[in-house]
What we know:
The protein contains 11 helices and 18 strands. The protein is an alpha+beta fold. The longest helix has 16 residues, at about 15-30.
Amino acid sequence: MDITEKPESLGFSRDRLENITHWMNRYVESGKLAGTQTLVARHGKPVYFNSVGNLDQENNIPWADNTIARFYSMTKPVTSVALMMLYERGLFHLDDPVEEFIPSFANMRRLRPQARDIDDTEPVVTLPTVHHLLTHQSGLTYGFNGGVLGDAYVNSKMDFGVKRGTLEEQVDRLAELPLQFDPGSRWNYGVSTDVAGRVLEVISGQSLKDFLEENIFDPLGMTDTAFDVPEDKIDRFASLYGRGEDGNLTLADPAATSIFKAGATTCYSGGGGLVSTADDYFKFAEMIRNRGKFGSVRLLGSRTVDFMTQNHLDGDLADNGQPVFSEVSFEGVGFGLGGWVMLDPPKSQMMGSVGDFGWGGMASTVFWVDPVEDLTVIFLTQLVPSSLLPLRKELRALVHQALID
């Protein structure tokens, strides 16, 4: 991706943008990250695009402009957009019960308050709906959230992993477990978007993979975005790292033997299954910034994107039971259909603009679009879990301090 405009012509200081480079270098040189990449654009034009460190630490292979990374939960906005494309065709309503599309979700039960056993349940008062899925108010969870239900997810391998059977099979197994709470009563991060992906399959009659390729990836030219990495691209695929007890980076998923290598994927996770590049995801993010359009291609109506990027909760995420997630405070932050919505930057204690929209992934990646400053920001690295370092808060400050207009 070439930078053709002087940063100053777009309201940025070139010198101040270099603070991002220094920041990335500090993390790489200190051994806390293997490699990292940041893209900042304004009015659709890149003002900063730089990579630091390695995609493969063990073999000293530099992170390149076209490095492929695991985007994990940055898949969620993509799946949400895809489902809303069907909404625009009048094929479902947001208040439709999930069981209308997935019969196994009929007669759902929830854990009783203070339950200590997975069988301590009662019938739900409110049926889970498609809207509950898109806003993470469904009562579903993740295993890493812990508790009685989280532990049951772990024991049942309910993680929508690439080799966990088909999406249909996973969702039907999921429906055998109770919900964490009554749908609509609070917010809880979980596998809701995976179930939304299955709803999409039922409505469209296509696999999630085929629908995304036909309706999003191909039209936008996202040629490196998929649910796996073909053999001829594996040399561009970054290895995934964690942190050992000694504080040093440890290999979590080497690229050469990764579970994301082509041929292994059977379950298409709408909540966390995509791999992509900064250039590819930029096209998707720009489509959101442009209210449904990228170049000559329109995926959604402008009012649909406006609707998606509004807060759909009663109050902020803290009011809905989630004051902190990963390393980020959720006070002053709401949630739309598939991503956060900034409501009150001072309350959140993070730089930003009212209405900025985005989401991150388990490997410490993040993106957001800012309608006030007309920004698109993408940050990539490959470190799990995303709570290890305060990268997202720091990047917000770094991007905004470079604005000078």
